[in-house]
Structure formats: structure tokens, C-alpha cells
């Protein structure tokens, strides 16, 4: 069943959707017909954590009418919260990280400009679309929060001030691979393709971050982000 994020009141006897792009997707792209059911969800406080099933009653250009059928609790979210501090990498790879981080359950993503970052900025509106579509597809109850780009120095300070455990991923021969942590709230730092500079590793250590390894093989930044995130959330 198709799922859609909708910023509207969902506890209604008749739900009228007037978002033209969404109506176009339902009518012309997915070709959903009268009598078929879809699921809407929202991260508004009164709807958070629930999926709302509606039946399509009528659809025309620019408008669709739905009747409510079922309200179910969404229990797919991890009991842990992970904030991913991701160094900026090439656009297509960064967007892949956004998609997969959403799928594995990351709660918040902080784009970070580290010394060897290949990019210095991101297209926030485009990234928001990627997050929304990934949340719809994967069954998430929320869309991960996306912060604006910040420097590495500000990111380290932000993580330190959060008061939560911070893991700093780096290539290492040591057997200190990341494991599923018992912490309910953690921060994870992932470096760029060129790796961290020594001063960045020193800054992380000084901020009481735990330096962890993802094994003896050198992983791409986007691969490391997904593997480490999944392990911390579900391992």
C-alpha cells in the first residue's frame, strides 16, 4: 500500500487533498483508482507515531477526496535515537546517504564541512524531498531532521554540548569495531572520502568522543555511514 507524508488534519470524516503535486502523483503516476486505499502519516504531535489508512472516493485535476478506514500505531521506529554527523561528499553520494540513513532509522542528519570535504554546501530543498520519499517508502513514522551545513569545529561542539555519547569513525587496525550500543541517544561522526586530518581526530579525542573502527578494510564514506548507523541502532 502506498504511503504519503501529509501536513494536514488527518482525523476527518472526509479528507480533501489539494496538494497538486501529490494529487498528480496519485492520479497520473501511480494511477490509484477509486476504492483503492493509501496510507497517510504526519510528524505533527497529535498524529506522530500513527499510520492513517484512507480510501480514495473521488479524484480530479488538483483535488482528491478520501474516506478514513483505519488508524494504526506505527511501531517501526528504533527505541534509540541517532544523530548522524556526515561529512559532505559528492552530491549523488550524499543524497544516497540521506536515503539509506532514513531507511535504517537515523533521527537527525547534520551535514558537516570537514577539512577534506569535496563539497561545501548542499541543496536543502532537494535533500528534504529525498528524506521525505525515503521515509514514505521505508515505513518510517517520522522524517529525519536535516540541519544546515556547519563546520567540523561547530559540529564537534554541538555533539559535546548534547551530553550524549559520541562515536567518531576512523580506519584502524585495532579490534574496536562499533557495536550495538546500549545508549538510547548517540552521535556518530563519519569522515569524507579523503579521511580525517590528524587535527580533527585530536579535536574529537579532546571532546571525549570515542574513536571507533569499522574494521580493517577502508570503506567509502557513504558505506561507512550506513553500516555504522544500522549497527548502533539495531545491532
CATH class of the largest domain: Alpha Beta
What Rg do the Cα atoms give?
A: 20 Å
User: Could you give the distance between the termini?
Assistant: 28 Å
Strand content: 25-35%
Stretches where pLDDT falls below 50 for ≥5 residues?
none
Helix content: 25-40%
Please indicate the count of domains. 2
Order of helices and strands: EEHEEEEHEHEEHEEHEH
Quote the CATH topology of the largest domain: Alpha/beta knot
What value does the average pLDDT take? 93
Question: How would you sum up the major sheet?
Answer: 7 strands, parallel
Strand-pairing-aware structural class: alpha/beta
Care to count the β-strands?
12
Organism: Candidatus Giovannonibacteria bacterium GW2011_GWB1_44_23
EC number: 2.1.1.193
Subcellular location: Cytoplasm
Enzyme class: transferase
Describe this structure in words.
The protein has 235 residues and is α/β, with parallel strands linked by helices. It has 2 domains: 3-73, Ribosomal Protein L25, Chain P (Beta Barrel); 81-234, SPOUT methyltransferase, trefoil knot domain (Alpha/beta knot, 3-Layer(aba) Sandwich). It has 6 helices and 12 strands. Strands 6, 7, 8, 9, 10, 11 and 12 form a 7-stranded parallel beta sheet that branches. A 5-stranded mixed beta sheet has the order 1-3-4-5-2. A hairpin with an 8-residue loop joins strand 3 (37-41) and strand 4 (50-60). Helix 2 (91-104) runs parallel beside helix 3 and helix 2 (91-104) runs parallel beside helix 6 (221-234). The model has no long low-confidence stretch (mean pLDDT 93).
